[in-house]
């Protein structure tokens, strides 16, 4: 609009005025994408949820993406084929970016085993991308076998299962690396919070 | 996890504890999906951005989805074929639902011409879906022709252009109907705010 010949003078084009910076100010913290990666059973989702609880108690606006809220919804049309797995990670990256633009701390908890796919999300999100490697040995993950998936994979019932029949490519330079096989959960969470404070994404804790 | 035979005792399964209700309390308002629909040039995007500005000034957490932030990103793989248009609206609906769960007032500004597609989003989002019909005659929209699209469509350069070569199916029971061809912009915005207050999505204005 803004066209001088507009017949309808009550309509003037208005572009977005509420910027990311204004949202961050409203929320009292900066936004970012916290991208948890690691084997099934490495503790990504657990960590993300416990971290979210602490962030919420500090009055931060957060959201956790995991299989529960993405696989049946936004990515409900995707299979587990290689092509669709790539598209799955791409969409999650795009969505996390939008949440970040909305002033939210977006936490994603997906195996995301391939460097190239994580690299694409990093390139998309830019400096706000924080890769958190949940480093846990296959032995430990398999012994936990929370969902019984490793057992099935060993029987050959799940094709291309990360760690068993498909590779996991560990991050080379993650912003945060956690030894989730031995490090207590509380320490892991604190390490992330310390990092966020050091980057001034979170304001310093006052109380 | 929660498996008593867990070898790694430091890992206990933690599910999500930060609920939508807690996020809404933090943000000081309820969340919803405000779905603007209408012809190209009817004022959807303008209205959404002006409304967002007012909501932000009331300390509300908001986000506007429009072609600018969706078409090249999350839906960047989609064409304008009928099938892909349906998928486009589906994904926007799924995403808006996630924002709503995150305690955000999600505003979407897409023509979304077909009742069946809007119905699907309504069914997905439930009671939080607020359909806002930007009712403006084709004549007025075409005379505005903000982006020069109608001119192109009349020349046959844009196939299946809503209102010209493809139908627009007006909502039958929208929560809000605005006469965006004649009603001043400020009145339209106020009408939406009044509605949100009446539904107690927004707290009453105190100042």
Protein model, in words:
2 copies of one chain form a homodimer. Chain A has one domain (20-137, 169-198): P-loop containing nucleotide triphosphate hydrolases (Rossmann fold, 3-Layer(aba) Sandwich). Chain A is globular. Chain A has 207 residues and is α/β, with parallel strands linked by helices. Chain A is built from 8 helices and 5 strands. Chain A has a 5-stranded parallel β-sheet with strand order 2-3-1-4-5, with helices on both faces. At the A-B interface, helix 1, helix 2, strand 2, helix 4 and helix 6 of A face helix 1, helix 2, strand 2, helix 4 and helix 6 of B.
Topology:
Two copies of one chain form a homodimer.
Chain A: H1 20-27, E1 32-37, H2 44-57, E2 62-65, H3 67-70, H4 82-101, E3 105-109, H5 115-125, E4 129-135, H6 138-144, H7 149-154, E5 176-179, H8 185-198
Parallel strand pairs in A: 1-3, 1-4, 2-3, 4-5
